[in-house]
Request: fold
Amino acid sequence: MRGASIAHIVLVIAALATVPLLTASNVVLNFLTVALLIALVGQGWNVLGGYGGQYSFGHAAFFGTGAYVTAILQMCYGVNAWMAFALGIAGGALVGAVIGALTFRSGLKGAYFALVTLAFAEVLRILASVAPITGAGVGILITLDLRPQAFQFQSRAPFYWIMLAMVAVSPITAAGGGFYVQYFLFIDSSIAYGPWISVEALLAPIVGGIGTVFGPLLGALVVKTLGELTKLITGDAPGLDLVIYGGLLVLIIAFAPRGIAGLLADLRVRFARLRSSVSERAHG
Reply:
């Protein structure tokens, strides 16, 4: 990675880190924390899909495993929340290694690979919905314990900073699952392994820019903002927000096929050419 890129990353992370110092609004911090959660999951997808060229439709398998391992170790075995979180990441990585070994050994690529990953996530969802250890259809509720030792805080700000740090250094989808459990204090099969998180993992880098450093972050912020705005505009009209939300996403993808990062790069190149042209005419 070039020095300039690292400098840009440091500047962006530093700017985002100041947000809780500027506002104590739980609404703002909750919005940004969830957006960063989507960015983290999107980064995990971007490593495989954007840089590796293997498009996955089943990142919920890693997210859900990280979430369930974190929750089960705490509630069933009394493991410390931070240790459970770390082991949840390891559990997600193990599932990823197993799926990767089975699919890559078989030489699966393209649509075949995508469908197999989707199938794995769905199998895990079905198993989690009936297994007693996962709470079956009821799910697992984490005991409220507002202490840092329990990975719970009085304010949203520590959650925000932790998520920002993970986005900066660890594109690990399972970490997103473990964080979700600690943030919302609940998990069930439809949340852990449902298609929603796999879709979010896809949308963030696609909208932001596949194979780019800032693509998942840009995409997550745009996707989350569009989702909230459409809900605000449509009010109680059932399903209308999804129609508008989907239409806006289609427009973004249609007019910015390389994502927002690609669009910004194109605009920067055009601006540089225009400035160069004006400079040549001025000196001509």
Remarks:
- The chain has a mean pLDDT of 89.
- The two ends are 39 Å apart (CA to CA).
